[in-house]
Description:
By secondary structure, this protein is an alpha+beta fold.
Amino acid sequence: MTRASHEAAAWVYQGTWQVLTRLFLVPAHPPDLPVRPGDVVERFGPAPGFLRYLKFRFWALNLLDLWIVLPWIASFFVNRWLGLALLPVVVLLLVVPDVLAYIAIHLRYDTTWYVLSERSMRIRRGIWVLREATITFENVQDVRIQQGPLQRYCGIASVIVETAGGGAKKDENPFAGHTGLIEGIEDAERIRDLIMARVRQSRAAGLGDDHHDSPTAGWKPAHIAVLREIRDELRSTSSTPPSQ
């Protein structure tokens, strides 16, 4: 894409983004998660390298455009008027798809959000169909990093989070069943370690155990038994009439 077409695509994208977000009521802010007071929440999107990664992949797949450009250039040597007559066809086959691809790539980048709380994570993406996936850390079975050569070149990686019943064949879909895909981030190791730490914290607390909110958190049965004996003793003492 030339500089002029790149600027034209950027201009078209800004207008398209404003129209689509208003028409389809796309939220301008990342999604929320239910949290308790004091919980730490991280909200972030893909890194700039992810946008470069998507564009590089698109242009690599569009090398077939040369089969259109080269014959068109050759047509000028045969007949200049023939080349000019074919210009609208070349624009329709090359420039228009490039602009549409530019818009689609940026929409994917700008509508992707990741939210991590202390108990769960949420992934949101989409503008025509807004999709969200929520994974509770108590159900996480495996967390790993995936990074191909092109991702390494762009300085990004993906974190794959699998829950019970997850499978490797679902890695490419961030909303596929039991798999969560956090793609296009720079600090993949930190995010992986953070998720694993919160998984261990959730399992230590127990399923559904809001240990921060419980007044008896950390008390053993023996402690509670002693407190009950003291309570019963106080009750019996207070109910005994004073001796005359």
